[in-house]
Amino acid sequence: MFIVLSKAVVSVLLGALALLMAFRRPVIASFLDQSRRPWLLIFWVVLRLIPFVGIYLVFGFTPQSDVANYYYPIGLSAKALEVPYRDVVNPYSPFYGFWMAIPLLFWNNTKALVLFLTLIEFLAVWLTYRTYDGLLSRGERLFRALFYLMLPVPFCMSVLSGQEDVMLWIFALLAIVVLKRYNNDYLCGLLLALGILSTKAVFILVLLPFFLLSRRPIPFMAGLATLGLPVFVFLYLKTGVLFIEQPLLEGAYLKAPNWASVLHPWISGFTNFELSIWNYAGLLISLLVGIQTLRLRGQHDYRTYFPLFYIATFSIMTVVQKNAIANYAYLFMLPLVVQMLDFRNRTALVLLVLFNILAAVHPSFWWRIGQPYYQSVSEILSRPDYMLDYGMELFIIGYLLYLVVKAQKLLKLPYI
After folding, report:
1. pTM score, whole prediction
2. Which residues pair with 136 in a beta bridge?
3. What span, in angstroms and rounded, lies between the C-alpha atoms of 389 and 358?
4. Does residue 393 contact residue 256 with C-beta atoms inside 8 Å?
5. In this prediction, what percent of the chain has a pLDDT beyond 90?
6. Final residue of a domain: which of 223, 250, 277?
């Protein structure tokens, strides 16, 4: 339980500091706006690099979980120019291993992967900061970047867990900017193809709705095909259908929290969530919610409607996928802070921080109490840690549904 307690203490401290900072936002934003220092780099050094050095180099901790079990062997395989899926088990997209191989070329250690992923996150923050130039003041953009970096979910997922989910936002953001700012449908398609080949299968939930956004479908599909088609043919010739089967296997596991884990104690007698049909139902619901959110965009600027679409899509996905875990909050936390969050609403601020604390701690807590998948309400009530776990699950799921509703509500407001 040391990991759980460590994450809990760090998350509560970061959450408290983030709240205190939010209550002083006008003063801090004004100071950041007036000072011409490289603040984003300073934020990264203080909130990512120094913790990394302390945890992994000074105290000598070793990255565990996905970093050790997946990223490292997949990266080593790519470094040796082996074929993904055939030569190494890979639940991610085919190019993912080659991204992981980059830091291993310089430092053959799992710690290099965590450091590299903090740099990937820094790139996401910088791109978002640049994208909102002209829509938000410099001080406001810097403050939101700082607030994001202090939240428990980004900190724990980046520094402590070495998660890669923020990569999806990078490719999605680049694609929408290229499409709407530069009107380049072909390059948009190319970037989306690179995105789905570099990250994981759920990126399809971002890719497909772009068919609604593209005004020139032929160049758009040509961009997708330029990269996607040869990779598909190569993988089929080399691996058969392993490149489809291995990512799908990850979706077969029952995890928590999601609608299956929350509902199962109440309806386990007549519902079998182990059936694969629930995976496809979840993906369809996620896709439909995303498309519906886009249809509400009206005359809103793409920097308003696209992040809300992205937040709604992955919030509902985290609810309806039976293998979803709270880690997925990392997928959309950056656009949520930069675009959706209203710092004047203190209730929303407190709820966001509380959600971050619980989402950062719950995966480790759930794992260390035996990954319970409750068969009945009486099982939940049989142990205090089960009751705590189920209470956390209910709050996390409730907040995710709140985000879906809020995103669509904001798009219904008149364009200013």
Report:
1. 0.97
2. 133
3. 10
4. yes
5. 91
6. 250
Q: Are 215 and 110 within 8 A, CB to CB?
A: no
* Residue 77 pLDDT class (50, 70, 90 cuts): very high
What are the tokens at 48? 């990512």
What is the C-alpha to C-alpha distance for residues 262 and 285, in angstroms, rounded to an integer? 17
Please tell me whether residues 121 and 171 are part of one structural domain: no
Cα torsion through 251, 257, 259, 264, rounded to 10: 100
Residue 50 CB neighbours (<10 A): 12
Question: What pLDDT, on the 0 to 100 scale, is given for residue 269?
Answer: 66
Query: What domain range is 45 assigned to?
Result: 1-164
Residue 391 one-letter amino acid: G
Contact 4, 365 (CB under 8 A): yes
Rounded (to 5) percent helix, strand, coil in the chain: 75, 0, 25
Do residues 131 and 303 touch, judged by C-beta distance below 8 A?
Answer: yes
Segment 385-411 mean pLDDT = 97
Tokens of 350: 């407190």
The token pair at 416 is 């200013």
Tokens read off for 407: 């995103």
Give me the residue label for tokens 């979840």. Answer: 282
pLDDT in tens, 251-267: 778 899 999 999 999 99
Q: pLDDT tens for residues 127-161?
A: 999 999 999 999 999 999 999 999 999 999 999 99
How many domains does one find in the chain? 3
Structure tokens at 365: 């807590």
